[in-house]
Predict the 3D structure of the following.
Amino acid sequence: MRKTRERGLSVQTLQELILRLQSFWAEQGCVIQQPLDLEVGAGTMHPDTFLRVLGPEPWKVAYVQPSRRPADGRYGDNPFRLGKHQQYQVILKPAPKDVQSLYVRSLEAIGLDLTQHDLRFEEDNWEAPTLGAWGLGWQVMLDGMEITQFTYFQQAGGLELLPISAELTYGLERLTMFLAQARSIYDIGWVPGGVDYGEVRHQEEYELSKYYFEIADVVFLQQIFDGQEREAKRCLEAGLVLPAYECALKCSHAFNVLDARGAVSVTERVALMKRVRDLACACARGYVESRERLGFPLLRGTLGATASATAATASGKEA
Amino acid sequence: MAEIMVETPMATEPPKGEFLLEVRSEEIPARMLEPGTRELATRVFEELMARGVGPREVETGYTPRRLVLILSGLPEREADREEQVLGPPVRAAYNAEGAPTPALLGFAKRCGVAPEELIRIATEKGEYLAAKQRTTGRATSEILSQVIPRVLAGISWPKAMRWGAGDGPWVRPVQGLLALLDGKVVPMSFFDVAAGDSTIGHPILSPESFSVVGAADYRQKLTALGLEVRHAVRRKRLHAAMTAEAEALGGKLVEDDPLLDKLAALCEIPGVMSGAFDPAFLSLPAEVLATSLRDHQSALTVEGPEGLMPAFLTVMDRPDDPIGRVRSGNEYVVAARLADAKFFYGEDRKGKLAPKASRLDSLGFHERLGTYGEKAERLAQLAAAIGRRLGSPSEEVEQAVEAAKLLKVDLTTEMVKEFTSLQGNVGGIYAREDGHPEAVWQAIYDQYQPASTEDSIPRGRVGRIAGLADRIDTLVGIFGLGLIPTGSKDPFGLRRAAQGVVRIALEGSLSLDLEAVAREAVGFYGAKLSRSADEVLSLLRPFLHDRIRHVLGLLGYAYDEIEAALGAGAGGSGGVASLPDLRARVAALKKVRGEERFLSVVLSAKRIANIVKDAPEHDLEPSALVEPAERELFDAFADLRAEIVEALAERDYERVLFRTADLAPVLDKFFVDVLVMDPDLDVRANRIALLQAIHRTISRTAKLTEMVVDKAELRGR
């Protein structure tokens, strides 16, 4: 066994964690994408995951995604739960043979000396009923704490996937808490030596919880749900898959808020979820058809080449 | 001396006929490892035996990252086979001149033998020519290289996946393949992974690849790295270390076999992680503490002289904790989980349980059957009805009603939302804390028992009454909607519910007419059920009878004994008026069936049943019985009836059956001397009436025609 000692080398703040992950996955040739500018429950719902995993085109992407789970809100009172948290999402399509060791290297990149820790991969099968998606994989446990969801996508939008994508979802707040051994999410540092998480986000957690649990207008939200569903169908009829998918995501969020507001009965729950799933599945089919019409552009050349060419163009413009 | 030394293999040289297989994969779910490995070993063994190259010994092992199979004493190759291939008939093989025909020459050529090597064989159709063909047996290595990948691919994992460009399906992506027969690589590949002679140790602590020459070398090298591939050995080590650790802490390990099985399947290096938590958490109910630690952290607890100690034990896939981070990480997570539990407990205990009952009005039981609030009302009525039927004292009925009203309230607590497996227990604990009588809180606590075949039924009568009410209400409700379980589809857990009903009534010795209770339960649903009680019962009855058969079968009763007892009573409906009574009748049948007299009574019963089967009911006119044999039968029956009725009242079914058997000789004589189907219709009707009276009496205990008897034995009499 190697006799190295962890000398406080691991990152301690949210910001450093994000920067290290960004540069590690950029070095692996990932498209460094930005968060989706809509409310979503998880990084999986970003079109760069949900739609890009469909069809034959290769894809590598990494991004932070703020993820809203209204029902998990605790008015900023609970040290471990948030109504809005941040995920670091990585998609590797097709999943490379060494994806597990790549993942282990990403942990080393954030300064963990794994020879001093207990890293285990425990069965955890992922399913998203509103997306018609499921996959097999693990919850990755570091010294007893779940720090990542590691999933091989098998199906999305009701469609069998081929090639298979690997999805890595790091819980950023949790991981930072663990690295800094903080007693509360609100105590973790955001900036080294600077503001902490509570200073940046506590008011937002309180107000969002208050809104989702007490203020949100049920009738208005139901109208949003119905209206966005109609709009999604209109978009699909017009052959516009991406706007249709955005409408579906808005439905999904409206549903989550209604649920947190306690306005969804058991029966309605099943029915509303089915309506979202039907939209998501229709978008998935429409997306594959639209890419096929374009001749699956990303099949041409390696993804790495495409990615670096894009990077070169971008930097050229800046200069 | 020298000769002996020559025969002793060198330590590094594996014994002859040894095959070592290791499949490395990404982490396989703990619960699938044992069945998967067993299937691999069994199928390989069977396939090799079928080819006559079976091993003398089979060893298996597994860790989350590898399946291991070691076969020893394999023969070098299959036996050579000699076959005779049939050719043309002799008469077609030679022409008139006795020279070989083209048929002969062509056959010899196809078989690759010289014409003069062909032999003659006599068959039913005459004499034929044949060629002797010798097939050389294949080398074991060649067989293994075909059998192993096929068997591996065929393992029936509960859930399989694809990976990469579409490899699979298998349980998880395959990473490596080690296949050595007597130190040589057996050429094969599995999902593009080619077999070699090397493996790796622990992926983080010893990831370097190394080669091995055989099983002993493999074990030795893994052991040197701290890895153990035998699950049982890992489990034993974990258990020993945990027991020692618990003792060192001044307590005793709380045994949890399923959890220990799981922990041993989660590691390659069985390290014990011992952690502590803030003693302030000990104010939580012990069930909550233990469940949180088990469900969330896969941790065992330690019991001290005054209850649980503030310590937990789990596994780490490494030998030690060099800088204490494994322990501090686990303690951190446990603290967070227990803080959550304490928060929920605090929220729940801001008020008592009983006032929370109103929350059930907004908790749906089933979309078409209303809320849990409505269910609670029905349960109170049904529990009272069951209590009355059982003749319970009024205090017991009151307590059953109180428990029924509170039974489901814990579904609205934060604790049960978080720890679903604690439903019932949580309500029971809260009711205990709120000062409800022992019988009431225990009834709430035990309501989901029996949850499995091994689980026991609720502790007290009140709990049994409440448990029956809950299950019967659910059964008639769902059946009332026509949602009957089919095949493996049983979303409402109705089989388990029905089994619970049967076991509670049986083991709790509750003499209860379940059909009558179910009818009342239908009534309490009012207009919610569109089906009548008769319709519901006609659907529910066969389902319930199936569960009764199943439970009695598990108790060791034979199929025909159960059917006979179930079929008792007029038209077979009285078989389950009381389950303890049913069991007494089944037990009596089992006991007397071996008796000689019993065989003849079964035969007579079958004869009677045949005669009275389709006959309308007749009134018996004893004075019209004139033939001596029928008078004798009537008198014998009249004598016996009083005694049988008495024995029936005492539920002494053995005596009933034996006394019934006393009729056998008189019956035999009756059937010889008297023609039941007399041309005179009045005489005939009266004789049938006599047999009907006997049939009714006999049928009160069992439908004897269901009993399977040895016909040969009967013919011999």
Residues 215 and 254 of chain A are 14 Å apart (CA to CA).
